[in-house]
Amino acid sequence: MKSGILVCSLALILSGFNVAAQHAQHTSAKADTLYLSLNDVWELTNVQSKEVQLQNTESLIRTQNVLDAKVERFPTLTVFASVDKATNMPIYSNGLGNKPEQHDVIHTLYNSGASMYFNLYDGNKQNLKIQEAKILDKRAAIAKQQTQSEIRYKAAQLFLELQKSMIFKQVIINDIADQEKQLHEVQQFYKNGVILKSDVLRIELELSKRKMSLVQIENDILITNQQLSFYLGSNENSIVIPKTEGLATNQIESYDEALKVALVNAFKQQVSEQNVELSELGIKKIKANVRPSIGVTGNFTFANPQIFLYPYNDSWYTLGLVGLKASFPISSLYHNTHKLRKAKLEYEKEEIAHHHITDQIKQEVKEAYLRYEEALILIDVNEKNKQFAKENARIIKNTYFNKTALVTDLLDADIQVLRTQFELEASKINAQNKYYLLQLAKGIL
């Protein structure tokens, strides 16, 4: 009776798997299918990724700041015009307590003209401002490259995860087919009275677990596809089918050579160098505060009445003035003292931070390099484990059907074969992941 209930339960579970699989296939049929290589994914992320787009915009803003700073070298030009109405001017020649005399004045005053100032020297402040804008522009360009590289690695992680899930799916499908054949053989032995019913039920139970694993793997594929679609800018229901590519296990340089590349190209290193330059420039800007400013001034006036020189008269006149203007901020001699000390401390801080980042890069490259080598070794180990597991399963299967092994031994051997297959494929994907992580640490992904 209990055996009958267990068989019915297994039948319901299997029917549920079939419905879930049909639903997944129906959902997938509605979605677009994209056959992409990893390079295709990277090309799309460079254009579609929101984070990359933000950095692109920030880089454009910094470029405009450089152009704006250069334009400020040009003379400052101003045009002006005004019309004023004036009242008569009361003159209290006999004291405030007496009636004033009304002095007639020109009631309408017109004034128009243009003024100009051209900076000749202001302590080199304008050139320093341009240099600062250029450094910020370069730093923004580095941040843009860094974001692109980080997004490429994240996209590669998802792509590899998707590739691994699809490989797992094929492995489990093949394994289910093998287990169904084995189940058929066991059922024949049961019909012949060679083995117990419990052996058949145990094998059916393991088969149902594998089918449940298939459902989980298919869900993993759908979830990873949605995550990847956000980087690709595609429909979130799109199905990406990774194109088969060779394992990215190219022979790499020695650790010393890899570190040499990283110390030049690592993004954190480049950003830190720009920060040091900015802090050094900050010292120069503070020192520029105690330098004179010299410029050419010009003014042209077209006005009525003429009240610039005495005697005044109700006539239109023009007047042009050109000269030199010089100033020196005396207060900066004492206002600048602590500002300069602060700027020098900022420079020292950035120097220390730069050395700290260099240490971080060395550690990251060392770890990534060793993990990649470790991943390559693991592939060889798992290759051998897979062969051992297959041979062990073959031996156990023969002994089981010869009644010299238990069903638990048979199931354990089959599970071990499946596990070693998963571990081998996972180690291959992991090696690719570590390879790209090393390239990211070196700043060349």
What does the secondary structure layout of this molecule look like, with pairings?
Layout: H1 2-30, E1 33-36, H2 38-48, H3 50-71, E2 76-85, E3 89-91, E4 101-103, E5 108-121, H4 125-191, H5 197-232, E6 239-242, H6 255-265, H7 267-287, E7 293-304, E8 317-327, H8 332-401, H9 407-442
Helix pairs in contact: 1-5, 2-4, 3-4, 4-5, 4-7, 4-9, 6-8, 7-8, 8-9
Describe this structure in words.
The chain has 445 residues and is α+β, with helices and mostly antiparallel strands. It has one domain: Outer membrane efflux proteins (OEP). The strands form 3 sheets. A 4-stranded antiparallel sheet has the order 2-5-7-8, with no helix packed on it. Helix 4 runs antiparallel to helix 9, helix 6 packs across helix 8 and helix 8 packs antiparallel against helix 9. The longest helix is centred in the C-terminal third of the chain and has 70 residues. The chain is elongated, with a radius of gyration of 40 Å. The relative contact order is 0.13. The N terminus is likely disordered.
Q: Which features would summarize this protein structure in a list?
A:
alpha+beta; 445 residues; elongated; Outer membrane efflux proteins (OEP); two-stranded parallel sheet; disordered N terminus; 8 strands; four-stranded antiparallel sheet; single chain
Short account of what is shown:
The protein is of the alpha+beta class. It contains nine helices and eight strands. It has helices spanning 2-30, 38-48, 50-71, 125-191, 197-232, 255-265, 267-287, 332-401, 407-442; strands at 33-36, 76-85, 89-91, 101-103, 108-121, 239-242, 293-304, 317-327.
